[in-house]
Amino acid sequence: MNYRHAYHAGNFADVMKHALLALAVEHMKKKDKPFFLLDTHAGTGMTDLSGVEAQKTGEYLQGIARLLATDTPHPALTPYLDAIGALGGDPLTQYPGSPALMAHLARPQDRLAFCELHPEDTQRLRAYFRRDARVKTFEMDGYTALRAMLPPKERRGLVLIDPPFEDRSEFAALTRALDDALRRFATGTFLLWYPVKDPSVSGAFLEHLAEHGPARTLTLELHVMATNPTRMTGSGMVVVNPPFALTEQGPDGKSAALSLLEWLAARLAQAPGARAREEWLRE
Questions:
Q1: Which domains does the chain have, with CATH numbers?
Q2: pTM of the model
Q3: Does the active-site annotation cover 48?
Q4: Which of 120, 192, 276, 280 falls 20 to 30 Å from 249 in CA-CA distance?
Q5: Which residues pair with 249 in a beta bridge?
Q6: Are 87 and 110 in contact (CB under 8 A)?
Q7: Residue-wise DSSP of 218-260
Q8: Three-class secondary structure of residue 162 per DSSP
């Protein structure tokens, strides 16, 4: 429980994760029926970019700040950037985390559940959503939440699993949690974020999913520099049952997600070797 996302809010990994999340939620709104959104590792909901934590690392300056300085953003960024504009202030002073983005994008008929284990962060999360009747917040382990809350009564839903990855065993825990969650909610859309640091660790996770994972499992990666096992050089997202908004092919034959990530790689590069990657682990 030592991890605090405030140090990393708005960095390149957040930009990737939240841009894909916004596209996925927007796609779910194409049908009138209500849906369920679950964030298993929610954090506080909103981060003060002038706060000690964000200012200590300044990671947002290499992420959302650079993105907002772009004159012609990629069209697929529209849902994400519209939410940032509505929630973050002008100039950007607050960075909305995944719960704030989900709540902003969801409709009145949709239901949302946000789980956070850190007591202080849970208090801030509850305070932020205290007037939103659609939202329930829980001081709960995110993996426990998957067992407790799936399948949702709506039978339509999206689950974001974004653990802190404080130790190497997180990948194993994530794999077990996904297996169990899919037994409960096979038709749900699952977004699993992971860091790209030591390729032997994240690569083993992806290899396991390729061999034993569910059908329709896609992985997407954004690298801002060449791989270096001493630091996080990229960010990945495994998507199970990906929405058409991510897989739709453009005139160039590339998926919407890959087109977006290649654009981000060019704008958010921090050193040589920046690139994007897409791979169907199981189709």
A1: 5-282 (3.40.50.150)
A2: 0.96
A3: no
A4: 192
A5: 255
A6: no
A7: EEEEEESSS--TTS--EEEEEEES--HHHH-B-TTS-BHHHHH
A8: coil
